[in-house]
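Self-study notes.
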Amino acid sequence: MKKVFATADEALDGILHDGMLIAAGGFGLCGIPELLIDALVKSGVKDLTVASNNAGVDGFGLGKLLETKQIKKMMSSYVGENAEFMRQYLAGELELEFNPQGTLAERMRAGGSGIAGFYTKTGYGTQIGEGKEVKVFPTGPQGQPEHYILEEGIFADLAIVKAWKADDTGNLVFRKTARNFNPPAAMCGKICVVEVEEIVPRGTLDPDHIHLPGIFVHRIIQGEHEKRIEKVTTRSREDA
């Protein structure tokens, strides 16, 4: 089965359709699938629901899809760096489903593991838990009852992720902080498309260093990445 494609456009060909649910890896601007995002913008696909830790920044990452208004709904845990996101949400142009950060990651991982739902204490008694099923388990000190809410696994139509290295079978290695939401996002996609910095020969990756096995990966592209810094913090030479 051929997994390596020449461009992001080719890798997404025949997959995209309006109204699809996309799981996107990355945290802030670290480890985001920027080439695949650009291809989504170019495709014109619309009415998207995107499950991602955040929505990028203005003019970069998922922020590009917000500018073109191709995203209908975001499922996120942090959205504080994007002014266009805020404008659209406050204007009623964009739906938002807030998730606690760990809950969002676990919802992706659950979907990738074939788990339809799970119970968590996080969010009980808050707006996050409103309208969700509540179950009591004896998990407190000395078996005291505690309340849990039911969260559903995410089963995305498409996962787009960024990795450091891959072989042609799709075994992935992530570099440092880029190993954030990328593995669970990749797992929960019915189709997973990955962009990498380097494709290495089969058999050269140490099995103990592989972060995600190729069984989850369907298509791969290699390309150059900007790796933009989200917030540049500097100090004067006198303070250094």
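Second protein, same conventions, sequence then structure:
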Amino acid sequence: MDKETLLKKFGKNVKIERVKKDLTQEQLAEIMGVSQNYVASIERGKENMSLGKILELSKSLNVDIETLLIFK
């Protein structure tokens, strides 16, 4: 798997979990203390997040980090 594919799959997982929680990108951004554009970039697979930020994101979504990192 190349980096681009990995980021897109991760972004898809983020979007799935955000929608399950009935959150908008703006609401998730507010919870995380980031911009809505940053959340949109993550979901589009354009943002290469650090592990620390991924952990923060998983906590913001109230899901195990593994949920975001499993690629089917």
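Instructor comment on the second fold: The mean pLDDT is 96.
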